[in-house]
Design a protein that fits this description.
The complex is a heterotrimer of chains A (235), B (667) and C (130).
Chain A: E1 4-17, E2 20-33, E3 37-41, H1 48-55, E4 63-68, E5 71-72, H2 78-88, E6 89-92, H3 104-112, H4 121-127, H5 143-155, E7 161-165, H6 173-190, E8 193-197, E9 209-214, E10 217-223
Helix pairs in contact in A: 3-4, 3-5, 4-5, 5-6
Chain B: H1 3-14, H2 16-53, E1 59-67, H3 70-75, E2 80-86, E3 88-95, E4 98-109, E5 121-125, E6 135-139, H4 140-146, E7 153-158, E8 161-172, E9 192-198, H5 199-205, E10 211-219, H6 225-236, E11 242-246, H7 251-291, H8 294-302, H9 307-347, H10 359-385, H11 389-393, H12 411-414, H13 417-428, H14 430-468, E12 473-482, H15 485-490, E13 495-510, E14 513-522, E15 546-549, H16 550-556, E16 563-568, E17 575-584, E18 592-595, H17 596-603, E19 608-616, H18 621-629, E20 634-638, H19 640-646, H20 656-661
Parallel strand pairs in B: 4-9, 6-8, 14-18, 15-17
Antiparallel strand pairs in B: 1-10, 1-11, 2-10, 3-4, 3-7, 5-8, 6-9, 7-8, 12-19, 12-20, 13-14, 13-16, 13-19, 15-18, 16-17
Helix pairs in contact in B: 1-9, 2-7, 2-9, 2-10, 7-10, 7-14, 9-10
Chain C: H1 2-27, H2 29-37, H3 42-79, H4 92-119, H5 122-127
Helix pairs in contact in C: 1-3, 1-4, 3-4
Classes of the chains: A alpha/beta (235), B alpha+beta (667), C mainly alpha (130).
Bound molecules: adenosine-5'-triphosphate (ATP) and magnesium ion.
Residues 15, 17, 22, 24, 42, 44-50, 94 of chain A line the site of adenosine-5'-triphosphate.
Subcellular location (chain B): Cell membrane
Keywords (chain B): Cell membrane, Membrane, Transmembrane, Transmembrane helix
Family (chain B): Belongs to the ABC-4 integral membrane protein family. LolC/E subfamily.
């Protein structure tokens, strides 16, 4: 087994709102090896997004440690965390989060402008099959199309890790498969470690490793000996 | 172009209405400052240039009859740079087709054609030709008020004799920028003129050959005005000299000064208030506008944009708005400033205008607005930028609603659901609701403060014309007259009542504070020209002692019970100590008031008057006019009601009441 | 002169009130759109927003008058001179005019808001998270 990209030790995230304490993550230990495709499955509210956010440097854990390679993310200052996100992380958000006043192309360019070795925005959009809609604004795109713009934006910088929060949530099976294909293609070509949150159990077939979440803990880990291709999926 | 800049442009376009609204607020603040300071400076510089170029004198004095030979002795006073001796006399005019009595100040013109001081600016025409005794130059406002051009004729009663005069020139003078007839409270250009005529002719008319009755002095830089005034007084004293005085007590200058002062005070008071309020409002608005971008700021952070570049992006947005506002405000303010300057310049009959440049004003106004906006943006950004991106990207957590009032009162039974939501929303964001309300309160406040001058002026007018100066006319005499003249005047046609009035110029002093004022004497319970205090009560003058304006009491630092030293600048010219028996909170000038008999006693003189205040029968005014014009000793007639109705000033409203309200406060 | 200042004060007042109203709308666009989706009529949604605007505008008036009076006092004190002084007189009509301008600004802003709400694209507001 290769060196892990992410190593979590007793990672805990507690949200306090009023008198209620929510253990979104409860002492999670975890290794995610380099170049793997990892799928996170679990019921709603089980802490998947929380984990992904912390791995992406968007949020900080309450306690515990999280390493990216040998970089301790829990110790980083804001500025270092920003640099980490800019240099290494591609993020696909659960709610797309496109800038409404920018076109699809410009939303991608937003990232390629600050990245070190990016693709051309048009190429990234072509990868998700949106070259024809390049100059449309988010409000002119369907939910699935917005999601694909978000994916193009995430992969355009050729990140070391690609973190996707329900990238196919809004898509029909055909486009869903194309999106998964695009993600796997990036993983294959660039060796990008890819973490995908999904509610679609059939997607676990394409993963090297599947993490099952329940109540802020990883309840089970499954490793697939042989990954299926996206084209073989059905849902 | 950077994608963030594209976003900026699109945001500006999307929010254009709000961008414009914020820019207008900035612009409003900037415009007031630019307007006020710009117009005040322009007028100030115009006046300085006017005085400079036309040799406005520094010290003025009058005498009954001083020999010309005295000129050299005056020139020997240390600090005197130039002297002009003249003959200056008030006289009644008779203008064809104009029944109301008009009066004029006659001023001699050196026959050498060479004026040293208070030089005329000739609007048109020429100086009187030597030997042509009927030729005169008149001041432009008077000519304009009557539509006179060169060649127009009118007559005047000079030293009791009627003379035909013909206008050959129309001029302006730095000495008579602001011309108010004696006894009048405001300029009435139809009834008050400045007439310049040959010294030879005027001296012949008044038997003043080889003599002068007025002198103007220009001081050397750094010379002491006080010393020159003292020495001039000493020189002129044997010749019936009346106290010399500096510019401060020269009527035209004093009023001009006052008007400019008002303008200056306004520009010091109102614009800063406006600018600060605008800055505060911009700050509030931009804070909220930037706060709305919370999720996008979170996203940019998540995508790896540094805090610095995000802050810069929003600063650019804010800068754009502010720059639009500053440019807009600058342009409008400059334009209004020019307009106001021209309006006042026209009102003062300045021969030319100097438009002052005020780069520092633009800078101040711009910097203040920009700083306020930047701070506003920064406040909002600081809040958002310090959130982890994951949190910022989510809509703010649903707020915790509390039950309003107690659970037992079922509010939703009483009010509808939308009303309840509204109440909850206000209760949920008390700070935001507070600032929103504060913003609107400030909007109301600046409207109130910009409107209040009108109310206060109107109040002033009411008090002055309906409570205090209730006389319809005042007859002023060239020389003081025995008091029985009141009897004679009261028998004139149309006169319903007549009241004596006596004025004595004095210097009043307490400690080392000194002011030159006039003490007026009137009957204790004057009925026409009354004294009204701030409580709007008529003041009954005590039988002895002096009442003074509250402002004067404040300046001198005295109160009832204290004594002041008074130099009487007329008659025996004694210095006396007088008890202050009352202070009157009045609105105009600083003055002293006494019961008229007490004043006579103080002067050690038999009862005399300098003017008589009259109430007239409205239906017989024409008879009165005709009769009064035939009295040779009358120096001038003030018609308070008439000038009150006709005076025109740069004003904002056409109603006469409003026009008059703007009398002294350039409104 | 006073009329110029009043005009500029009016412009500022207008800018403030309009901005208040517009930003309130933006801040609550999603909530209001949700209400529309839940079946509230346009009028009801409008009422929530406008009632708030109206109440805040009215609440702001008495303190506004007070502050205006205070500022006027400052100005009066500054204007007092040897030649003339003014007495601080503020007629009721002045308060009425000032308030009318602000209320007028609020009404015009309300009309703009109304038009905005009519055009409120429910789907777009709920779809994009901006
Ligand atoms: N900002 C927050 N404040 C309070 N609680 C939060 C916050 N964010 C998440 N939570 C809670 O933390 C828990 C985990 O949330 P998380 O978003 O990680 O779930 P998830 O597994 O991604 O669910 P889903 O599949 O529905 O997206 C949930 O119970 C959620 O309510
Ligand atoms: Mg989730």
């Amino acid at each position: 087994m290769s060196v892990p990209v992410f190593t979590a030790k007793a990672l805990t995230k507690i949200y306090v709102s009023g008198e209620v304490m929510v253990h979104a993550l409860n002492e999670v230990d975890l290794d995610i090896p380099e170049k793997e495709v990892v799928v996170l499955l679990g019921p709603s509210g089980s802490g998947k997004t929380t984990l992904l956010n912390i791995m992406g440097g968007l949020d900080r854990p309450t306690s515990g440690r999280l390493f990216f390679r040998d970089l301790d993310l829990t110790d980083l200052e804001d500025r270092e965390l920003t640099k980490y996100r800019r240099d290494h992380v591609g993020f696909v958000f659960q709610f797309y989060n496109l800038v409404p006043s920018l076109t699809a192309y410009e939303n991608v360019a937003l990232v390629t402008e600050v990245a070190k070795n990016p693709m051309r925005p048009a190429d990234a959009l072509a990868l998700v099959g949106l070259e024809a809609r390049m100059h449309h604004f988010p409000a002119q795109l369907s939910g699935g199309e917005q999601q694909r713009v978000a994916i193009a934006r995430a992969i355009a910088k050729r990140p070391a890790v690609l973190l996707c929060d329900e990238p196919t949530g809004a898509l029909d099976s055909k486009t869903g498969i194309r999106v998964i294909e695009a993600l796997l293609g990036v993983n294959r070509q660039l060796g990008t470690t890819t973490v995908i949150i999904t509610h679609n159990a059939s997607i676990q077939e394409v993963a090297d490793r599947v993490l099952f979440f329940a109540d802020g803990r990883i309840s089970r880990i499954r490793t697939n000996e042989a990954r299926r291709e996206a084209a073989e999926l059905t849902w | 172009m950077k994608v963030l800049d594209i976003k900026l442009l699109r945001d500006v376009r999307r929010l254009w209405a709000q961008v414009l609204a914020v820019a207008l607020v900035v612009g409003g603040g900037v415009a007031t400052l630019v307007l006020a300071v710009g117009s005040h400076r322009s007028l100030e510089e115009t006046r300085i240039a006017y005085y400079e170029r036309y040799g406005f004198a520094d010290v003025f004095a009058q005498a009954k009859r001083a020999p010309k030979a005295l000129t050299d002795r005056i020139g020997e006073i240390p600090g005197v740079a130039a002297i002009d001796t003249r003959i200056a006399k008030p006289a009644l005019l008779d203008i064809p087709g104009f029944s109301a009595p008009a009066s004029a100040q006659f001023v001699s013109l050196a026959d050498t054609g060479e004026q040293h001081l208070n030089r005329l600016y000739m609007r048109s025409g020429r100086f009187p030709a030597p030997g042509r005794t009927e030729e005169v130059v008149v001041n432009e406002p008077f000519a304009r008020a009557h539509g006179f051009v060169e060649g127009a004729r009118f007559s005047a009663i000079l030293n009791g004799r009627k003379r035909e005069l013909v206008i050959v020139g129309i001029a302006l003078s730095p000495e008579f920028v602001y011309t108010v007839g004696p006894g009048d409270l405001m300029p009435d250009d139809r009834r008050y003129a400045i007439v310049w005529m040959s010294e030879k002719v005027l001296s012949a008319a008044y038997d003043l050959d080889g003599a002068f009755s007025a002198v103007a002095v220009k001081l050397q830089p750094g010379a002491s005005e006080r010393d020159v005034v003292r020495r001039l007084d000493a020189l002129l004293d044997p010749y019936g000299g009346q106290a010399a005085h500096g510019r401060k007590d020269q009527t035209s200058h004093a009023w001009l000064d006052h008007e400019l002062d008002m303008l200056n005070n306004m520009s010091r008071t109102l614009p800063p208030i406006f600018l600060l309020v605008a800055a505060f409002l911009v700050n509030l608005t931009l804070t909220r506008l930037v706060a709305l971008e919370r999720e996008q700021i979170g996203l940019l952070k998540a995508l790896g944009y540094s805090d610095g570049s995000i802050v810069l992006h929003y600063f650019k947005f804010v800068a754009f708005i502010v720059v639009v506002g500053i440019v807009l405000g600058g342009i409008v303010g400059t334009w209004l400033g020019l307009h106001v300057t021209a309006l006042f310049g026209d009102f003062f009959h300045f021969p030319f205008l100097v438009f002052a440049k005020a780069p520092d004003v633009y800078l101040t106004a711009g910097a203040l607005s920009a700083a306020a906006a930047a701070i506003g943006a920064f406040r909002a950004l600081r809040e958002v930028v310090k959130l982890p991106p994951a949190v910022a990207m989510q809509a703010p957590a649903p707020p915790v609603y509390r039950r309003l009032l107690s659970a037992r009162i079922q509010l939703d039974r009483i009010v509808s659901q939308p009303t309840l939501m509204m109440i909850r929303n206000i209760a949920r964001h008390p700070v935001r609701a507070f600032f929103t309300a504060l913003g609107m309160a400030l909007a109301t406040a600046i409207l109130v403060v910009s409107l209040f001058t009108r109310d206060s002026m109107e109040h002033l007018t009411d008090v002055t014309y309906f409570l205090a100066d209730r006389q319809d006319a005042t007859i002023g005499f060239a020389e003081k007259r025995i008091a029985n003249v009141v009897e004679q005047v009261s028998r004139l046609p149309g006169v319903l009542a007549a009241e004596p009035f006596r004025e004595v110029p004095v210097r009043i002093r307490h400690g080392n504070v000194e002011r030159r004022i006039v003490i007026s004497g009137r009957p204790a319970a004057a009925h026409l020209r009354r004294i009204i205090d701030v409580e709007l009560r008529p003041v009954i003058l005590p039988e002895t002692g002096l009442a003074i304006s509250g402002m004067l009491a404040h300046i001198l630092g005295v109160g009832p019970g204290d004594s002041v030293e008074v130099d009487l600048l007329e008659g025996a010219r004694r210095s006396v100590t007088v008890p202050v028996v009352a202070t009157v909170e009045d609105y105009f000038g600083i003055r002293g008031m006494m019961e008229i008999e007490a004043l006579h006693k103080l002067m050690r003189e038999a009862p005399v008057v300098t003017s008589v205040n009259l109430s007239l029968d409205e239906n017989r005014t024409e008879d009165f006019y005709t009769a009064v014009k035939s009295i040779p000793t009358v120096g001038g007639v003030a018609l308070q009601r008439v000038s009150w109705r006709t005076s025109a000033r740069p004003s904002r409203c056409s109603s006469p009441r409003w026009r008059v309200s703007t009398r002294a406060l350039p409104a | 002169m006073a009329s110029i200042y009043t005009g500029l004060a009016g412009v500022i007042a207008f800018g403030v009130v309009y901005n208040n109203a517009r930003i309130s709308l933006s801040e609550r666009a999603r909530e209001l759109a949700s209400l529309r989706v839940l079946g509230f009529t346009r009028g009801e949604v409008l009422r929530i927003l406008l009632l708030e605007l109206a109440i805040l505008t009215l609440i702001a008036q008495p303190p506004g008058w007070l502050m205006g009076y205070g500022l006027a006092w400052v100005m009066k004190t500054n204007l007092a001179g040897e030649l003339m002084r003014v007495r601080l007189v503020v007629e009721h009509s002045t308060y009425v005019i000032a308030t009318s301008v602000v209320v007028l600004a609020a009404i015009v802003s309300a009309a703009v808001i109304r038009e905005r709400i009519d055009r409120l694209d429910l789907v777009a507001v709920l779809k994009t998270r901006d």
